[in-house]
Design a protein that fits this description.
Blueprint: H1 24-40, H2 44-47, H3 52-59, E1 62-65, E2 69-70, H4 78-93, H5 109-120, H6 127-136, H7 138-144, H8 147-165, E3 172-182, E4 188-198, E5 202-207, E6 210-216, E7 218-220, E8 226-228, E9 230-232, E10 246-252, H9 253-262, H10 268-281, E11 286-288, E12 291-298, E13 301-310, E14 315-322, H11 329-338, H12 342-347, H13 365-373, H14 397-406, H15 410-413, H16 416-423
Parallel strand pairs: 1-4, 2-4, 10-14
Antiparallel strand pairs: 3-4, 5-6, 6-10, 7-8, 9-10, 11-12, 12-13, 13-14
Helix pairs in contact: 1-5, 8-10
């Protein structure tokens, strides 16, 4: 008969010593980071004035940025994880992304954090020494200023990235930034980035006997909460006959394709962010010739309209019309003044933003006057900070001007079938 084994005595856990006096190797590495930041901020000599105790205290206020965290129970694509992981790494390591820029000092967001926590390590219990250090590190103190404002800008960047990438179809992502105290192996501040994946709000819309997927729009606020987009039914001026006070605002994929192609050279992420922001914060309904139009602004510049319809207690965005398109107030005015048909506007490629950017119309008074009368001249004044190179400099506005003067001539009839194919693309889009 086998002998009974004795019960193993429970192991006594070692006490976790999180004192900054421990972990000398890690302390040396972190102090080198502080020293490098001090050198960048013209405080290299001041760093040499620190006592051993003050350096240990500075290490006790250390800060680390962790890798992107995901939830195993949620669904992510590999491309999505790579995109957001690259963003987090670049956000804290690339000086171009620093939320506080200076012509003299070039810091990363991580170095900005290091400087802030280093200043907070100065001990107020010793007033004379505290004032001495604040004076010695005055350039750093002035540069950091109100750190809460820097933190707020970091949060805005995270919300921007989520709102610039969400198109609310397969997955909806919320990128969060949080700060947690880590007690072991030493006290430190961990800045954690986490990615949350939530299901889209999908439904179907029947049009001409075909079911089309539509998705409710939303916007991630600075508290990292998803706010779904609704429109007040009283703003629909009696077009809605139901009892709901609010209707969800939904969109077809087709509308995304249209707005992204018609607002080039703007980056897609800029357009998607502006679109989500507009429809969440500044949704305005207009009625034109029995149609529901929602103006779209890129910052303060009006670029076009979303064409929408009401269906089963939903406001559904079907497509996007550039400002020169017929069926918009400005586009119809342009057609009336110029004599250009819907097809001709497409043929002459003035149905997208591309040819309006960086163009020069100083010598073409006819074009200037025409677009001013149609309330379209502001398109020539748009400034794009983030976008692809435009074709505006090469566009032949004089040729268009001559065509309008002569009216419809053989010039338009020449391409026959090939030209016709180009013209019919949008002919029935909103019929």
């Amino acid at each position: 008969m086998a002998k009974k084994r004795k019960k193993a005595k429970p192991q006594v856990k070692r006490k976790q010593n999180n004192s900054p006096y421990q972990n000398s190797l890690l302390r040396k590495k972190y102090l080198k980071i502080i020293e490098a930041v001090c050198e960048k901020m013209n405080c290299a000599d001041s760093f040499k004035l620190l006592s051993k105790e003050e350096k240990i205290r500075a290490f006790g206020c250390s800060v680390f940025v962790l890798k992107l965290k995901t939830n195993k129970k949620q669904h992510y694509t590999s491309d999505c994880i790579k995109f957001f992981d690259d963003f987090v790494n670049d956000f804290f390591s690339n000086p171009m992304n620093c939320v506080w820029k200076s012509k003299v000092i070039e810091l990363t967001n991580y170095e900005l954090l290091v400087a802030n926590y280093f200043i907070t390590s100065f001990n107020k219990d010793y007033p004379e020494r505290y004032e001495f250090l604040m004076d010695a590190f005055q350039p750093m103190v002035e540069y950091i200023g109100d750190f809460e404002s820097h933190f707020g800008k970091m949060i805005q960047h995270y919300a921007f990235v989520a709102n610039a990438t969400n198109i609310f179809d397969y997955n909806v992502y919320i990128l969060k930034l949080n700060v947690k105290v880590k007690e072991y192996p030493t006290l430190r501040m961990n800045w954690e980035s986490s990615l949350e994946s939530i299901a889209p709000r999908e439904s179907s819309y029947e049009e001409e006997g075909r079911n089309r997927a539509v998705f409710q729009l939303g916007y991630v606020n600075n508290g990292f909460e998803m706010n779904w987009t609704f429109v007040r039914t009283k703003d629909l001026k009696g077009l809605y006959k139901g009892k709901k006070k609010y209707l969800p605002v939904c969109i077809q994929r087709h509308a995304y394709h249209r707005i992204l192609s018609r607002l080039k050279p703007l980056f897609d992420t800029e357009v998607v962010w502006a679109m989500n922001y507009n429809l969440r914060h500044d949704l305005h309904i207009e009625f034109y010739n029995g149609r529901i139009l929602i103006p779209f602004y890129y910052f303060e510049t009006k670029c076009g309209y979303f064409f929408a319809t009401i269906n089963k207690n939903r406001l559904i965005i079907k497509t996007f019309l550039f400002l020169t398109h017929h069926s918009t107030p400005e586009g119809d005015k342009l057609g009336e003044l110029s004599g250009l048909s819907k097809e001709e506007i497409s043929y002459w490629k003035i149905d997208t933003l591309q040819n309006f950017i960086d163009t020069n119309l100083r010598e073409n008074e006819q074009m200037i006057e025409l677009f001013e009368k149609a309330d379209l001249s502001h398109l020539f004044d748009m400034q794009i900070n983030h976008g692809h190179e435009s074709d505006g400099k090469d566009y032949n506005w004089n040729a268009l001007s001559q065509y309008i003067k002569r009216g419809k001539t053989e010039m338009f009839d020449e391409g026959t079938e090939e030209v016709r194919e180009l013209l019919v693309e949008d002919a029935n889009e909103i019929e």
